[in-house]
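To make the argument concrete, we let one protein speak, a sequence paired with a row of structure tokens, as a model reads it:
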Amino acid sequence: MISRRRKLAAILLPALLAVCHAAGPASADVQSVRRGKAFAKANCAQCHSIDRTTRSPRRGAPPFRTLHKRYPVETLEDALGEGLSVGHPKMPEFRLDPDEIDDFINFLKSLE
């Protein structure tokens, strides 16, 4: 006869493992968002608002929290990899590697 402890362990162990496995990617996502935010703070915050409430320091620079209303932020992946530039001369061109692109996109998505 199986003891109560073994029955409980047989039920709880798979559930506990599933929770631990699910927590891994979420933790990685948090780190990715942090890295993306660090990039935005270092390279974008002088013109764009990179949070959920403040105005952009540069007039006309869209707050990052509104970008998803204009287009899906995932569409920036190619532009960030090939060299993002826009029509005004003050914005520097950025070319990110694939991991940096993922981090930056994850950060932008966190603002939605």
